[in-house]
Design brief:
By secondary structure, the chain is of the alpha/beta class. It has a single domain, classed as Alpha-Beta Barrel (TIM Barrel). The strands form two sheets. An eight-stranded parallel beta sheet has the order 3-2-1-10-7-6-5-4. The protein has a two-stranded antiparallel sheet with strand order 8-9. Helix 4 packs parallel to helix 5 and helix 8 runs parallel beside helix 10. The chain is globular, with a radius of gyration of 18 Å.
C-alpha cells in the first residue's frame, strides 16, 4: 500500500532530523569506535569540500589540507580508492570529519543500465560506499541514479537495484541521496528555464522510504529551473547540499558547459536561495564542488560558500 504524500514527507522529515548536524543519533549509535566527533555547526550549516578538490602526497595530507583551510569536514568523492577500514583510520589520525561518500563509478556502472552485469557492479559500488561512509562516521552516500541514454525503463531498473541497498543503509544509519545532475533524467535538456523539480521529487517519493533523499546541487540546474523554487518543492527531501556557481549569461554566449563558475561569480540569486533554505528549515552539510587546489584556494572557496549561504 502506497503511503500518502503527507505521511511520506513526515517520515522523510523524521529521517532528516535524525541525520542532521544537530541530531545525528542514527549515525552516532552505529558509527565504529574511533571515528571523529561531529563539529558544532555555526548557523546550522557545516561546510565541506570534495576530497578530490584537495592537494597532497597522501590521503592524510589531503584530508588535513581541508582542515587547515577551515572546512568543517570532507565529502569523500573517491570511495573506490579506499577500504572502509582505511578511511576510518585516516579520519581518526587526522581528526577530519568525513560526512559522506561517493564512488564516481556510478557514471560508468549505471544503475539504469539494461545490462544485468553493469547494474550488479553499480549496486556493489553503492554498497561499498555505504560501508565506507559508515566506517568514517558519515551519514550518507551520494548517488547518480543513471543516464537517460540507458533507455526509458532505466529509472525503474535503478529503483529496483537501489531498493536492494536500503536494508544495509538503514542498518548502518546511512541515507541514500540522489544528486540532480546533467544526466537527462527528470528534466528536459532542451526545455525552458522554468522547469519544475516535481519529476525528481516524485522519483524520490516512489521509494516510500525515509532512507532515500536528495543531495541537492544548488548550481547544477540553474539553467533549467528556479533554484529557490526547487528548494521549496523538494523541502525535507533535501538532506545535504552541493554548491557551485552558474552563469546563464556566460553559457548563452559560450555554450552551456561554460556556464559553471566560482560560487559567487555567476548569476544565481543567493539571497533567494538563503530565504528558501530558511523556509524549509534546512540544517546540515554543504559541500563545495568547484575547482580545488592548495590551502589558500580552499580558503577562498570556503569564503565564497559562506558569502553565498550566510550573506
Amino acid at each position: 500500500m502506497r503511503l500518502k504524500r503527507r505521511e511520506l514527507l513526515a517520515s522523510v522529515a523524521a529521517a532528516v532530523a535524525s541525520t542532521t548536524a544537530h541530531a545525528d543519533d542514527a549515525v552516532t549509535k552505529t558509527a565504529p569506535a574511533g571515528t571523529v566527533s561531529l563539529p558544532e555547526p555555526p548557523q546550522g550549516l557545516l561546510f565541506s569540500c570534495k576530497y578530490t578538490m584537495t592537494k597532497g602526497g597522501s590521503l592524510d595530507e589531503r584530508l588535513a589540507s581541508a582542515r587547515e583551510a577551515g572546512m568543517d569536514g570532507v565529502d569523500f568523492d573517491d570511495a573506490a580508492s579506499v577500504t572502509p577500514e582505511q578511511l576510518r583510520e585516516a579520519a581518526a589520525r587526522t581528526g577530519v570529519f568525513i560526512h559522506n561518500a561517493i564512488n564516481h563509478a556510478h557514471w560508468g556502472k549505471t544503475l539504469t543500465s539494461p545490462d544485468d552485469a553493469v547494474r550488479a557492479a553499480g549496486l556493489a559500488n553503492l554498497m561499498h560506499c555505504i560501508r565506507v561512509s559508515h566506517a568514517a562516521g558519515g551519514s550518507g552516500v551520494l548517488v547518480v541514479v543513471g543516464k537517460a541514454t540507458d533507455g526509458p525503463e532505466g529509472p525503474a531498473r535503478a529503483r529496483d537495484e537501489i531498493r536492494k541497498a536500503i536494508p544495509l543503509a538503514a542498518t548502518l544509519g546511512q541515507r541514500i541521496l540522489f544528486e540532480n545532475v546533467w544526466n537527462g533524467l527528470f528534466y528536459q535538456d532542451d526545455g525552458p528555464r522554468t522547469q519544475s523539480v516535481t519529476p525528481f521529487a516524485d522519483y524520490i517519493d516512489s521509494f516510500e522510504s525515509p532512507w532515500v533523499g536528495a543531495f541537492f546541487d544548488l548550481g547544477n540546474h540553474a539553467r533549467y529551473g528556479d533554484v529557490a523554487a526547487w528548494i521549496r518543492e523538494l523541502g525535507p527531501r533535501i538532506v545535504k547540499l552541493d554548491i557551485k556557481g552558474y552563469s546563464n549569461a556566460k553559457a548563452d554566449a559560450e555554450g552551456k558547459w561554460k556556464g559553471f563558475v566560482d560560487i559567487t561569480a555567476g548569476d544565481i540569486d543567493w539571497a533567494a536561495v538563503r530565504a528558501a533554505l530558511a523556509d524549509i528549515g534546512f540544517k546540515g552539510w554543504v559541500s563545495a564542488e568547484v575547482g580545488g587546489g592548495d590551502v589558500p584556494r580552499l580558503k577562498t572557496v570556503l569564503d565564497q560558500m559562506k558569502t553565498a549561504l550566510l550573506g
